[in-house]
Amino acid sequence: MTDMITHIIKRNGEKKPFDTERIYKAVKKAFESESINDHDTVLTITNSAVNSMQLLNKGRSQDVTVEEVQDVVEKELMVQGYHSIARCYILYREKQSQLRQEKTYIKVQEKTLKVKVSETEEIFYNPKTIEDYLRRLSFDLFKVSISEMIDAITKQIYDGIPQSELDQLILGSARERIENHYQYSSLSSRIILDRLYTSILGSGLASDTQEVEYQAKFKDYIQEGIDFEILNPDLLHFDFDKLSKAIDSKRDYLFHFLGIQILVDRYFIRNRDLKSSVIELPQWFWMRVAMGLALKENEADRNDKAIEFYNVLSSMDLVSSTPTLFNSGTRFSQMSSCYLNTSEDSLDGIFKLFSDNAKLSKWAGGIGSDWTQVRATGSKIKGTNGTSQGVIPFIKIFNDVALAVNQGGKRKGAMCAYLEIWHMDIEQFFELRKNTGDERRRTHDINTACWIPDLFMKRVEEKGDWTLFCSGDVADLHDLTGSAFEARYCEYEADSSIRKRVMPAAELWRKLLTMLYETGHPWVTYKDPCNIRSPQDHVGVVHSSNLCTEITLNTSKDETAVCNLASLNLAHMIKDGELDREKIKKTVSIGIRMLDNVIDNNYYPTVESEKANLSHRAIGLGLMGYQDALYQLNIDFESDENLEFADASMEMISYYAIFASSQLAKERGAYDTFKGSKWDRDIFPLDTIDILEKERGQAIDVDRITRLDWQVVRDHVQKYGMRNSNVMAIAPTATIANISGVYPCTEPAYKNMYMKENLSGNFFVINRYLVDDLDALDLWNESMVKQIKLHNGSIGKIAGLPESFVRKYKETFEVDMHWLLRSASKRMKWIDQSASTNVFLTTQSGKILSDTYTLAWKLGLKTTYYLRTLAATQVSKATVQEDVNIEPLVSATAVSNDTVNVCSILDPECEACQ
Which residue has the higher pLDDT, 639 or 408? Predict the structure, then answer.
């Protein structure tokens, strides 16, 4: 397709040939209005405007609209310095717009304004029809003003408007009012659903026959998906009469606008021949995922289990990660979220890793690769008697594999490189994400993370020295942890025959933190807590975490660690002002079974990943909606009550997750390497804090309080074992939380009001709990909305609000990191893997940054994730591009976190763990 513009689209939808002469005449008239007659300047501005339009339109289409042309001309006049002429041009456009609106109002009143239904059919516009339609969809949304929406639509409509454009105006009239009340988000969702229903079922959301048709056509949809060679033909073995009756279309009303739009854009199955044609409805989607997870259940139980899975998914009490949602029930059901592997120090081993990562990336896996074993720069190569260029060139190729093997041809791969901090190339590793320097030694398309043993943190505290080695000279350090690592490391330091480099530990720590300031990398992760507290210390070593730093599984040349994720929606687990223990028990039990089923129904890209997953059966149950639960319980994030709730809620989840895995072991057998594991030795996650404390030689500032009768679980595990080597991990959950309409994972609310931007569009996000609380005091009004927008979502400086409100609705960057880390440590007591823990700071102080990461270590945290800070400049309307304006701190100017992506269909973020 050529990028040259060939046609202009008029306001009535009519196409006309693009004519540069008409732009010249319009600019000429604008100059003449100021009594200026300058042919050369007019021609220059005209040509600049046309060139700008060509650039803006590049790769889009060969058409532009009248408004787009006028916008560009207006901008060119300003750029060229003709401000008075630009002002006249703006006033002229506004006057013309008012005249068009007046004509439109007259035609609407006279009922002569036409809507173009098709190329050959037109109907008269009737606002009453739209009003009735919106009232049917908003039957229980009492904060919605239909009359305001109709007025907004009428202001933008024009004679001959295409039906598709009118439909967008209707949706837009709801979307643009979400800032006024979150009920407009629900209405926007219903408008999307209504169109989806009409397209697929032939009847709308409010139709009397909708529920019957929703159920009756379910099997036809499955067959259609199979015919398109998308769905697994084995799905036909289910009892469709039974499954169809279980489908509850009313659960579609649970969606907010952002959630349903994400599903429509990136998750629902489409006609292969017509990629714009969605063939999947929301409840069909949930049931398809459930069926895929139940495929290998016993035939007698298969349908009941599918319905059981469907009920927790469709109610969004628990939601599987994106790979499972996307691929469950399909022909290639790659449902695992995370892969971890380690490189050998040989060309065969290194290039096999490249090959494996290419395969894993092809099937949408997020990858964490450990590079510590690769020898350092200057090391001898025995075969050629030459010297090595070190690990950096190989990590550069690793970066390029992420680019070369993009996932499904839609997006680059998502990978993270790990290196232990004693490796002699570590300082060059720190600089991999710098924007300056030799590009051959830069990796802009992957993440990096530093794997730090306790001994290094002790040396920093003691202001001692730190020794860097070539991994080829100290090969066993890679597999040693805790006190054994410390003893061997000191031996190597004393060995004068080994090549080494010594520097102050604090200097290296400062360099790491400096790069973290400048580039957001490398992330800080702690080797010894991950290993010492690992249930699988009897069969291997954890050499790295994963892409999102919540997975801590063993890796070796023979095994690529695999983990499968889902998240409990804590927002749905509160009843009568407390945790709903029975619901948590039931939901967690079902969730553990779903996750275990992923392992047996999964497609494995490599032999090593299949071996590891089938041998150890690691899963990761996490949570989302934590902030929602705090709001419901009226608990401030900065409070001891929050710490207590973090402890109690995670204990309950852990209790029932471990118990559920052990019950599965009773039914299906324990995982292959259970014997000798910490589980087998009656060592549970809470017990491992004492072990870490002993190995570290320092107290871990976390209490050991319990509330539940753990002996029951311990006895069951001793008798029947565990089905899964690892059971819990808290992933970031950004996308599935958006789908579910709750706050991600365990973090505070980012902002009370802001604009989220991703490839599905712009979405106004508003804190519905704040709206309800202000509304109850009759304080929610247009003035309040303006004040919150003025303060970029914060309510801390708004006069007249109760202090309790200000405390309750603190935003992420207003909450002291002390509280986030303390609450994370409370949860870490109960977790056998880790959690994606972001660090949020509003300062450039190196000391505060150092103290923050040191506190994380002292509290026994295993990993941290992104360092985030607000951008240096904040726009007045609190606009933020998703995961882009939340940036790592540099000097006066923030540098954005370059976000990598995994397994969404179109989204620019990593969604492996979401």
Answer: 639
CB-based burial, 642-666: b 16+ in 10 Å, e otherwise: bbebbbbbbbbbbbbbbbbbbbbbe
Catalytic residues: 546, 548, 550
The answer to whether the beta carbons of residues 312 and 573 sit under 8 Å apart is: no
How is residue 205 written in tokens?
């959301």
- Kindly give the interhelix angle for 454-462 and 505-519, rounded to the nearest 10 degrees: 110
Output the six-digit token pair for 62: 């060969």
Rounded Cα distance between 416 and 449, Å, is: 7
Q: How far apart are CA 369 and CA 420, in angstroms?
A: 12
- pLDDT for position 913: 55
Please write the tens of the pLDDT for every residue from 437-472: 999 999 999 999 999 999 999 999 999 999 999 999
Examine the domain organization and report whether 397 and 514 are in the same domain: yes
90 plus 117 within the same structural domain = no
Distance between CA atoms of residues 849 and 146, nearest Å: 50
**Helix H or strand E encompassing 622:** strand 619-624
Which residues, 6+ apart, have CB-to-CB distance to 819 below 8 Å? Answer: 637, 638, 639, 642, 643
* Domain contains 720: no
Residue 895 has pLDDT above 50, yes or no: no
**Domain presence at residue 534:** no
The CATH number linked to 378 is 3.20.70.20
Residues 406, 521 within the same domain? yes
Looking at the structure, do residues 74 and 130 belong to the same domain, yes or no? Answer: no
Query: What single string gives the DSSP state of each residue in 528-575?
Result: HHHHHT-TTTTS-------TTS------BTTB-EEEEEEEEEGGGSEE
Beta bridge partners of 765: 754
Q: What is the pLDDT of residue 886?
A: 31
**Mean pLDDT score across all residues of the chain:** 91
Four-residue CA torsion sign, 629, 619, 399, 373? positive
772 lies in the same domain as 853 = yes
Q: Specify the number of domains making up the chain.
A: 4
Q: What distances in angstroms separate CA 527 from CA 69, 449, 481, 834, 835, one per listed residue? A: 57, 11, 7, 12, 14
Whether 99 and 52 have beta carbons less than 8 Å apart is answered as: no
Instruction: Give yes or no: residues 767 and 866 share one domain.
Output: yes
Distance CA 319, CA 591 (A): 8
Lookup: tokens for 799: 């006069």
3-class DSSP assignment, residue 137: helix
Task: Report the alpha-carbon distance of residue 713 to residue 790 in Å, rounded.
Answer: 52
Q: How far apart are CA 147 and CA 134, in angstroms?
A: 10
- 86 versus 858: the higher-pLDDT residue is 858
522: cis peptide before it, omega within 30°? Answer: yes
Count Cβ neighbours within 10 Å for each residue of 84-100 and write b for 16 or more, e otherwise: ebbebbeeeeeeeeeee
User: Where would I find the beta strands (DSSP E) of 424-488?
Assistant: 447-452, 465-469
Same domain, 86 and 119: no
Distance, CA of 609 to CA of 334 (rounded, Å):
12
Among 209, 234, 255, residue at a domain's last position? 209
312, 315, 310, 316: which is closest to 329 by C-alpha? 310
pLDDT in tens, 175-197: 999 999 999 999 999 999 999 99
595 close to 564: Cβ distance less than 8 angstroms: yes
Q: Which domain holds residue 160?
A: 109-209
**Residue 549 lies inside a defined structural domain of this protein:** no
Asked if 418 contacts 545 with a C-beta cutoff of 8 angstroms, the reply is yes
Question: Is the same domain home to 28 and 114?
Answer: no
- Left if phi > 0, otherwise alpha if psi is -120 to 50, otherwise beta: which for 465? beta
Residue 196 is assigned to a structural domain of this protein: yes
Q: Out of 209, 230, 263, pick the residue that ends a domain.
A: 209
Predicted TM-score (pTM) of the model is 0.88
Distance CA 2, CA 343 (A): 46
